[in-house]
Specification:
Layout lengths: L2 H7 L6 H26 L6 E5 L5 H10 L4 E6 L12 E5 L12 E7 L8 H11 E13 L1 H5 L6 H11 L9 H11 L3 E8 L2 E2 L4 H19 L5 H10 L7 E2 L2 E8 L5
Helix pairs in contact: 2-8
Length: 265
């Protein structure tokens, strides 16, 4: 993986194992809603489907079951270190969405989850996805609206450390509220039958709903202590607070936006 790719993804080689666990928890948390969404949109045997930003590949594996042996799934990510082995009808490809092109007019369905917010060329990427769709094909984009998640009231010192880590994870090119804007971008691209659905979940310790973020905090807090940004007693107290059995917090808002490329008449 290139230095640019590593900088964009932000996971060093010695953090791969904990990041793999975190991504697995995130998939466990998000996959049921994604599967219901894609079932509603329509995934049928024989389809050609693109899963962009596949992460562990859990959605790609599910799509492979839906399209069957006569269909194909292209599963792409900028970093394939976390991608699991796939069935024979899945093509796994390293792909930088900000610059690498896709086969034009090829896919019946394209899907990306928690990807667009991380790419500065997000409108251009959506245009490439649109170009890759067959006429009548569906684009499904799941992305976040993070403001309430970042700024919510939490007990101290956890609240301050949560906001510090959440803000630090916002890179110069990231748009943490991109999910709100996707509908307008799809409309500008000429997609039809537009719809947007928001979902919010409560995050709890020792459940997939929260572990994806609590693991990220546990990875980040020692660095803050080492840098002198957080006192060690506050760090220990915050990590204990988020592991208390009764603790709960608001998760990010996930916005699923759906559109179809106009059919040829």
């Amino acid at each position: 993986m290139s230095e640019v790719h590593r900088e964009r993804y932000g996971v060093s080689d010695d953090e791969v194992d904990i990041e793999r666990i975190r991504l697995a928890k995130l998939a466990e948390f998000l996959d049921p809603g994604t599967f219901r969404l894609l079932t509603r949109v329509g995934v049928e045997p024989g389809m050609h489907v693109l899963e962009m930003g596949a992460g562990t590949g859990s959605v790609s594996a599910w799509l492979a079951e839906q399209v069957g042996p006569g269909g194909r799934v292209m599963s792409t990510d900028i970093d394939l270190r976390f991608h699991a082995e796939m069935p024979s009808n899945v093509i796994v490809r390293q792909h930088d969405a900000s610059r690498d092109r896709l086969p034009a007019g090829h896919f019946h369905l394209v899907h990306a989850r928690a990807v667009i917010q991380h790419i500065p060329e997000r409108v251009e990427v959506l245009a490439r996805l649109n170009e890759a769709l067959r006429p009548g094909g569906a684009m499904v984009i799941e992305d976040g609206a993070m403001a309430e998640f970042v700024e919510q009231a939490l007990p101290e010192p956890l609240g301050s450390i949560h906001r510090m880590v959440a803000s630090a994870s916002t890179s110069p090119w990231r748009d943490p509220n991109a999910g709100v804007r996707v509908l307008g971008w799809m409309r500008e691209l000429g997609l039809e039958d537009l719809d947007a659905i928001g979902r919010v979940r409560i995050m709890r310790p020792h459940e997939a709903s929260g572990e994806w973020w609590f693991l990220a905090l546990e990875r980040a807090v020692p660095r803050l202590v080492e840098a002198g940004a957080v006192a060690e007693p506050d760090a220990a107290a915050a990590l204990a607070q988020m592991r208390e059995p009764g603790f709960a917090m608001l998760g990010p808002t996930s916005i699923a936006t759906i559109g179809r490329k106009p059919a040829i008449t």
